Prior knowledge:
The protein is an alpha+beta fold.
Amino acid sequence: MKKRIQFILLVFALFAVVILSRLYFLSIKSNTYYEKLAIQNLVKTEHFTATRGEIKDRLSKPLAVNKLGFSLALKPHLKKDLLHKNLQFIADELNIDIKKLSLQYRKYNSPYNHKPIMIMSFIPYDDFIAKFANFSNKPAIFLAPAAKRFYPQGELTAHIIGYVAKANTNEATNNPVAKLTGIVGKSGIEKYYNEKLQGTLGTRKIKVTALNKSLGTLALNKPHASALKLGIDIRVQAYLSQLFGDRNGALIVMNAKTGSILAAGSYPEYDDNEFIQGISNKEWSVMIKDLNH
C-alpha cells in the first residue's frame, strides 16, 4: 500500500514538473521569440524596380527609351455593383471596352489574392494626366507611375536592339526583377544585356500598424539600372537600309582596326515596337509566313 502511494505521488510529481516546464517555456523562454515576431509584424519590406536602362548609339542618339505613364489597378473582392460601377467609369473615361476590363479583373480576382488587381499596365502620361484627379478620388482605384519601352528608330535597329515583352512563367520564377516588372529582354541587345538593363531591386522597410497603415520609412535601398552606349552609328544604319531598299540580305559594317560594329542590318526589317505589349496571332502569322523571312 505504501509503495502504491509512493508511485502515485511520483506520477503526480513528474506531471507537475512537465506542467511547470511548459509554463516556464511559454511565459519566459518563448517571450523572446514572440517579441521578435511582433517586431517583424510591425516592419513591412517592399521591393521596387528601377526604370529600365536606355540604349544609345555612339553619338548618344536614342535607340531604346522609356515612355512615362501610369498603371491602373482595382481593389480585389469588390461586390458586383461596385465593381461594375468602377469598370464603367474607367471604360467611359478612357474609351475602352468594359468587357475587356472585366475579364482582366475576374482572371486574377480570387479569395487568395489580397493585392490590387492590375487591369491596365500602362496609360500614356499625356492621355491621362488631365483625368488624374478624377481617378485619384476613387477609393477602389489604385494608380502608380509606370514606364513602357519604346524604340524611336523602329525598323531601323530592330535586329540589333531586339525587344522586351511579357516574361513567361519560367522567366518570372528565375528573375526577381522580371517577376515585379512583368517584362524581360527577348532578343538582341535587350536580351544579351538584360541583367544590366533591368538592374537590381530596391527595398523599402516601412513601419506599419496592425491595420497596415504606414507610420514611416525605416530604411531605403534604391534600385539601380545601367544604360548602354553602343558602337552603332545610326546614320550608317540608315544608309544601309536605304541601299538595300526592297532587296533581301544582311550586312555588317565594322571598324577593322578596333573591331567596333558601326552598323548591322538584316533585310527585310520589322518594327520591334509591335512586340512590347504582345503581338496578335494575325500579325505574327503574316510575319512568319513572309517568304522573305
